[in-house]
Structures are given as C-alpha cells and as structure tokens.
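Q: Here's a chain of 321 amino acids. Please give me its 3D structure as tokens.
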Amino acid sequence: MAPFGRDLLAGDDPEPALEKYLPDPVDEILVQADLTAVAPGPLVTELARELALAADVESTGGATVYRFTPESVRRALDAGRTAADVTDLLTRHSATPLPQPLLYLIDDVARRHGHLRVGALSSYVRTDAPATLDEILADRRAAPLRLYRLAPTVLASGLQRADLLDGLRAMGLAPVAEAPGGGVIVTRPDAQRADPPPTAEIVRFRPDDRTDASMISAAVRALRAGDEASRHGAEQARQAPSGEPPRSPAMATVERLRGAVERGGRVWIGYLDQQGQASSRIVEPVRVEGGFLTGYDATRAAVHRFALHRITGVSELDDAS
C-alpha cells in the first residue's frame, strides 16, 4: 500500500506524502483571440473558482481549455460580479494581453444585463396623485407594510391585498380593492351577490352517529321529498302559508315544538338568520334538546337544525294545510 494510502486509512493528512507527485498549482492562464483560455495546469483556488463562473470548460487533459460565451459571462454577472471585476481578474492572471473580441463580449453582455427586473409581489397601491404616495412613504406607520416604489404613481408590497388594505385604513386612509382588470371590487354589505346557503345547519349523518329511528325517518322523508319536488315542482311542495311569520313567547314556542314532536305533526315557524333577516319554514319536529330544534324542513326538503333562540314563533298546522 502506498504511504499516502496508509495515512488516509489511519486518519492522518495524506497531503504531505502526495505533494511530490502532484504538479504545483498555477495562477496564470493564456487568453486567446478565439474566446478561449488555456490553463497549463491546476489553478489556484481563487482563480479556478472565478474562471468557472465566467467560462465553460471545453476540454481537459494536460491543459484545461475554457471558453467564454455570452451565457458564461452572464453567469458571472448573475453571481454579483461586474464587467470590471471579470476584466480585472483576467488581466491579472493572463500571460497575454486580453484580446478585443473578449473585451467586446464582456461589455456587450454587461450592457444588456439587468435591464429587465423580475420579482415577486402580492399587492400594490396606485393613485393619480404622486404626492399621496410620498406622504405614505414618509409616514413611519407605513414601515410594516413593506412598500416599494415601482413608479411615481405605484407602490408595491409583499403583503396580501387584505392586509395592505387594513394597514392603509389604520393610517386613516380610505383605499378600495382593485380587480386585475382595473375595476373596483365592491365589498359593501348590500352588494348584489349569489344567494347565501341556508342559515340553518344541515344535519349530516355518518356511520358512527348514534341516530334514533326518528332521525333516520326524517332523513328518509327528506330524500323522498326531494324526489317528489323534482317531479311535481318544488314551489308547490314547499309553499309556506301567506302572511307574516308567526310570533309567540319563548316558553310557548318550546312547549309547542315539544308537543309537535310527541304528536308527529307539522308546524309553521318564524326564523331569524345571523344577519337578522326573517323567514318562515314548515317543519316536522323530530327532537328538541340542547338549545336546538332538529326536524325535517319541508321548505328546504332537508333535515335541519334550528337554534331555539332564533325561532320567533310557532303556529301549528293541520294535515290538510
């Protein structure tokens, strides 16, 4: 076994034993007019690292040939080097004067480098009054908003749009949200939008739920009612009595609901959603417990759970109604 092999296995440094077999590193290269550079031996660490950034290895052997291309020069510029840094490095370590084609290549790539900027931003602020943006940037309260001026009338931020709106409003400003096409996003409570889902909670059954026979019966009734409504018209099957939703005292409401559960009849209830809007429902109560009424809602053709404190009143219905 070679001496340096024994040193390596023993955990010692094999470099002293290898020095006499390895060529000395060089710090000089030969730069040629065909945009190549020849390294006559292994390069010192700094030169090897910098030359690997600015040029591509074309061939190896007793001497290594590097080629300069627009892509390799741009790679050095992307790594933070400037055109002067690359030129000075090659001038210091070249045994020959730098040829003009290489200088032209470096200058041409550097002239075009960085003209386009690509970044990631989440929101922006724009206005027709640049002075308004000057005031925002001068305000110390705007520091957490991470604002950056892209143009005289545009500020960019890394925050989400909702967070930026809240921050500007906390400064006493009155911004509005803008859609990608430039239109204003309306956020007024009375803005027209799709109908919200039913405010009463839909009761969903899972295999591990401990449901009694009445709840199962109500679920089956809801499925059959949905099929019937689709065949004969939902409005006729779900129509509530005309007039204002019923009103009754709280204690009377609970007693009537419990009586409907025992009797198995239907009731007409008034119900308030979370926004305070009143509606009426025809319900076949199944259970009254825990502050909730659970039953089959004929108006929605589904089993729902209603909060008792939101029920404004109860009116009993006979089978004919």
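Q: Can you summarize the key feature?
A: The first strand starts at residue 30 and ends at 31.
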